[in-house]
Amino acid sequence: MKERFFAIVNPAAGGGRSARLAGPALARLRERSMLVDVVESPGPGGAVQIAREAYMQGYRRFIAVGGDGTAHEILNGVFLSRSGSERISLGFLPLGTGNSFLRDFTNDGAEASLKALLAGHKRAVDLIRLAHANGEIYSLNLLSIGFTADVAALTNRYFKPLGHLGYLLGVFLRVAQLRRRPFALRCDDDKDWNEERCLFLSFNNSKYTGGTMLIAPDANPTDGLIEFVRWGPIGRVGLLRMLPKLYDGTHLAHPLASRRAVRHVEFNVPVPVDVMIDGEVATLECRALDVIPAAVDIYI
Questions:
Q1: pLDDT (tens digit per residue) in 157-188
Q2: Do residues 147 and 174 make contact, with C-beta atoms less than 8 angstroms apart?
Q3: Can you give the pTM of this predicted structure?
Q4: DSSP letter (8 states) at residue 14
Q5: N or C: the chain end with fewer CB closer than 10 Å?
């Protein structure tokens, strides 16, 4: 196993902010005698293959230089190729747009992450594993279907360079096109399928979505559970009135909202649907979700 760190830089993260700031941030680590090898991701999905190759070469310490999507790609590159139970560690230089995951631990993500890397301070956190018709995907932050995935798909396609403003544009356009659909599922020891229509279903390892939305205020990435948040078929006017409450977690007081902590989710959705996974969107035929307790060590 290599003792060096392997940093993957997403230069497009944060609207190009990562490209400008990655060099000075990595230099601060090297000034403290940290051994860091660096590769730049060529584009979306590129960090998956780079991380896979680095893992096969013996690297076990990784640094995601970018946003939540960069960390997501690194973890999937490693876990989809990993054999055995040898642990990996992941640090962050959070120079992207969302950086939702770190907000569970600190409001000063960039500086706290840097200090944790320099001090070697890390903690074990859970991952969520999605089994779908063509394989598996791992999530550090959350998976969501319905309205939230619809918004993310639209935002990523047209408005992502606008940052948070782009996300708000996506929200209001999707409110105008509002769809409330059933996604049949059952959790843990449930006997019956829940086939009721809903606005969205969110399966969370951590609290925040999009960096600022507190959709799952009771989530805990170290408790070995998936925080399942469901919002029923609310109408357009009601949704517009409730949107601000998504930012402080009080939306859960709405009579159509609910939450529960689960370990396993089984889907009966025989067609592919858009799934938001750690800020990115994939169209998948979902089969099951499981939590992997204490799966990875995070520097924080």
A1: 888 777 778 878 888 899 999 999 999 999 99
A2: yes
A3: 0.92
A4: G
A5: N
